[in-house]
Design brief:
The protein has 860 residues and is mainly α. Helix content is 53%, strand content 5%. The longest helix has 24 residues, at 687-710. It comes from Rotaria sordida.
Length: 860
């Protein structure tokens, strides 16, 4: 029976206060078990009969109550001191890291050692253990002896944190899916999953306001709309509060039918006035998951509502704590499942915008994006910015989400819901002067219109933008781009220093517009700075010749970042190419919540139909590699991408900001990679270009090592990004270790390095190319030195796993061999030279790029 197996294992360990013989404890348990089994038929006929699972849970709880932790800890410690004194010294030392504990917990077979390490988990910070949560979950599913010792840790953490409960539930759901295909009955992991989902270990939520927040009031009540005018902000807020109180009292006196016509979201956002407590308020109906209700992500918890300036410190209601975020993620995933059935990308984008509007009906809400660690509330989705990404069979999409920072995601108040009709449009040219005058009042504190940390363009950048628009205008032909100065032109230049030449009427008006634009913006500068700039400008006008001005204006026109036009077949290129700071500022200006001081913009990529567990494994491996290289002072660059696994075929990915794929670069710019570098970063001798090439080399070296160790495949130009600083960033690690596209094993090179990459470095004889090979050698040496931190990540996940990357042979043995422990440093250096040469001249790489070009239209 399940009861017999469950009872015989943990009891000898937990009940042994001193080193008592195990057979005696087992005999006592058998007597109790036989008595329980003899009365099983009688109990089953009574209304209080317990199922075998409930009996197991009740029995384990009784054992836990009778067990005193101190004697058990003493017994395991005494056992280790006698049998394994060396291990005990290691576990008690300061060099015992989380990686060592997880590795020994997986490898050891002794129950006493496992139990000691299970309690050792409580000694480490939560964030360090959370990194190894996939490994803990995998051991819990496939190794029963380990699941017994880490069960207390997992359930304790679940009762302390909603985030941890959500992560455990999603990972259990993802990794159990493969086992359930072959399992005959549910195991302990399935019961744990349902216990978490049904909130058996309900997280205890407390609110502890800090002194800093009370003094500085940075996290003020967000349900009070801020006024844009900084001068009259306090008076307007007082008036608005008085009006809201009058409206509330008048609405309470009206008939109940009018109250029902109001939006439930607006009703939930109203503050409590005149001593009205939550128990006297009408409790809204629970509508979790219903996007048409307007409250799909609201769990009806009112424990932390502000009553007469006081707020509860603890949640005492039975509202579901995990459901709001789960329903929010489910809504995003359901949209991704519908999009592949829409025919064209243009229609997919239109369908996506419509679905995002439906979700906005249910926002703001107490939901958040889990891989962003700062506490925040989702208030709105910028639906017009949502874009479908490139994929042949599926439809991943990127969504931009507006959030507000908060103290506590459970207790901090939500902002009042704003209608889309209240979108704040940008100011017109006719009242631009008034806006600048008002802007001058806020320039001292560094804020604009009540914003905090809102970046503003400098005067020089604004002038450059103005000159760019002036050059691109129809009157730009009046400026000659020739650098040759004839004798007549020299005479004209001498006359120009004394009296400016007459301009055509239209160009003169444009010139006056530019001058007026500059004069308006100088109003924000103090008199001393303005006088200095005026003097410098006057001197520069006397020193700089007109030919030099024409040359500089030409450089402004032909250099700088390229903005891609929107392509209906690839709408993501223009979206991803736009600089993040400009996108954030533009969305903030058009958002009804943009006036809130703690407003922020985040982004997420939603993927359906792909197994993101491979991506999560690659993320963990790269995080550890990044730490190793930083500690060993190896100057390489790798950018691990946060992954949120929601199931075995769906999840969220953190997008790389200010980065686009090599395929999009070559398709939209019509340039080679080197010419694109010259266009983006300047001439070959410019500092910006040299820095970008250095970043390119350092990132190429890092990802060459990652691709070699993990045997990453499917490296076409659509899966390689280039950011605005010149770094190469690889994405999509769905094919690695033993998994290959179509199971063909076609890409045979150690990693991808092409002639275009070498051209950016300066050629085969350049110093940067030699530097690239040196970085690969140093990176491999550092990774080999700390191999013990990398191997457990893969070894534990391979145990019992049905992932495609572990489907062929002993994967971990091949990974260990790629560290080349049997080679000296000189031999490894020779091997690196050989790998780089074979990768550069790889025929399979070129053929695979050609195959992707003709089948999927991905540029070579």
């Amino acid at each position: 029976m399940f009861f017999r197996r469950h009872a015989q294992k943990p009891i000898p360990t937990h009940n042994s206060i001193v080193a008592t013989p195990i057979p005696i404890a087992l005999d006592k348990i058998k007597i109790i078990e036989d008595e329980t089994e003899s009365t099983e038929n009688e109990l089953s006929t009574t209304p209080t009969a317990l199922s075998p699972i409930e009996k197991t849970v009740t029995f384990s709880n009784e054992i836990d109550l009778t067990t005193t932790p101190t004697p058990t800890t003493t017994s395991t410690t005494e056992h280790l001191s006698i049998k394994h004194p060396g291990l005990l010294r290691l576990f008690d030392s300061t060099v015992c890291t989380v990686s060592i504990v997880i590795s020994y917990l997986f490898s050891t077979k002794e129950p006493m050692v496992q139990e000691f390490l299970g309690r050792k988990l409580f000694d480490y910070p939560n964030d360090e253990l959370d990194f190894y949560l996939p490994q803990l979950i995998n051991m819990y599913i496939h190794i029963p002896s380990i699941s017994n010792v880490i069960h207390i840790y997992i359930t304790t953490r679940c009762s302390q944190s909603v985030d941890f409960s959500l992560q455990c539930a999603w990972l259990l759901d993802a990794y159990i899916a493969d086992q359930m295909k072959v399992a005959k009955k549910p195991n302990a992991a399935v019961r744990l999953l349902f216990d978490i989902l049904y909130e058996k270990y309900k997280p205890k939520i407390c609110y502890k306001p800090t002194i800093i927040n009370n003094l500085s009031n940075n996290h003020h009540r967000l349900d009070e709309e801020e006024n844009e005018n900084v001068i009259n902000q306090d008076d307007d807020i007082k008036t608005e509060r008085a009006l809201s109180q009058e409206n509330l009292m008048s609405s309470m006196n009206k008939k109940r039918g009018h109250q029902k016509s109001r939006s439930d979201v607006s009703e939930r956002s109203l503050p409590i006035m005149n001593g009205e407590t939550s128990k006297h308020r009408r409790q809204p109906r629970l509508c979790l998951g219903d996007l048409n209700s307007g409250r799909a992500f609201d769990n009806n918890c009112m424990c932390f509502e502000n009553v007469n300036g006081f707020r509860r410190r603890e949640c005492t209601c039975n509202a579901p704590k995990l459901a709001p975020v789960r329903e929010f993620m489910t809504a995003l995933i359901n949209i991704g499942k519908k999009l592949p059935h829409v025919p064209t990308k243009e229609k997919k984008t239109q369908n996506l915008i419509g679905e995002m509007k439906r979700m906005n009906m249910n926002l703001p809400a107490r939901v958040w994006i889990p891989f962003y660690k700062f506490p925040h509330h989702v208030v709105r989705i910028a639906y017009t910015e949502a874009t479908v990404l490139n994929s042949r069979d599926r439809a991943p999409y990127i969504v931009y989400i507006e959030v507000v920072l908060c103290d506590n995601v459970y207790a901090s108040p939500l902002p009042i819901k704003q209608n889309e009709s209240k979108l704040r449009s940008t100011r017109s040219e006719e009242n631009l002067t008034d806006h600048i005058i008002n802007h001058q009042t806020t320039s001292v504190s560094g804020t604009i219109g009540g914003y905090l940390n809102c970046e503003t363009q400098s005067l020089d950048s604004e002038l450059i933008d103005s000159y760019r628009s002036f050059i691109n205008s129809e009157d730009a032909d009046i400026w000659s781009t020739s650098d040759e100065v004839t004798g007549d032109e020299q005479q004209q230049q001498q006359q120009q220093t004394q009296s400016p030449p007459p301009l055509p009427p239209q160009s003169a008006s444009r010139r006056n517009g530019l001058i007026g634009y500059r004069s308006n913006h100088t109003m924000n500068i103090n008199p001393e700075t303005q006088s200095i700039r005026s003097t410098e400008s006057h001197l520069s006008q006397q020193e700089i010749m007109p030919s030099e001005i024409r040359k500089r204006l030409t450089e402004v026109k032909t250099t700088g970042p390229i903005l891609f036009d929107r392509d209906p077949e690839d709408p993501s290129a223009a979206t991803l190419k736009e600089p993040w700071d400009k996108k954030e500022q533009r969305i903030r200006q058009s958002s009804p919540y943009g006036h809130l001081r703690n407003w922020r913009l985040v982004a997420a990529i939603v993927k359906c139909g792909d197994d993101l567990r491979h991506e999560l494994l690659a993320y963990q491996f790269m995080v550890r590699l990044k730490e190793i290289w930083a500690n060993e002072h190896v100057p390489v660059f790798v950018r691990p991408i946060n992954i949120l696994v929601l199931s075995n075929n769906s999840g969220l990915i953190e997008p790389i900001l200010n980065a686009i794929s090599l395929h999009q670069i070559k398709k939209n710019s019509k340039l080679s990679l080197r010419n694109y570098f010259l266009r983006e970063f300047g001439t070959e001798r410019s500092e910006e270009f040299l820095t970008a090439v250095k970043n390119f080399v350092q990132s190429c070296a890092a990802y060459s090592i990652v691709c070699y160790l993990l045997q990453v495949k499917d490296r076409h130009n659509g899966n390689i990004l280039l950011d605005d600083e010149g770094h190469v960033i690889h994405i999509d690690f769905g094919y690695m270790l033993s998994a290959t596209p179509k199971n063909l094993g076609f890409e045979s090179s150690p990693f991808k390095i092409t002639q275009e990459f070498v051209d950016i470095m300066g050629g085969l004889q350049s110093d940067m190319y030699s530097y690239y090979k040196i970085l690969i050698l140093r990176g491999l040496l550092a990774a080999r030195k700390h191999m013990d931190k990398l191997m457990p990540i893969v070894e534990i996940m391979q145990h019992g796993s049905q992932l495609n990357c572990f489907s062929k042979g002993n994967v971990t043995l091949g990974l260990r061999e790629r560290f080349h422990l049997n080679m000296t440093d000189e031999q490894l250096e020779f091997n690196v030279e050989k790998m780089v040469e074979s990768s550069l001249n790889s025929l399979t790489t070129r053929v695979y790029d050609t195959f992707q070009y003709y089948t999927n239209g991905i540029s070579k």
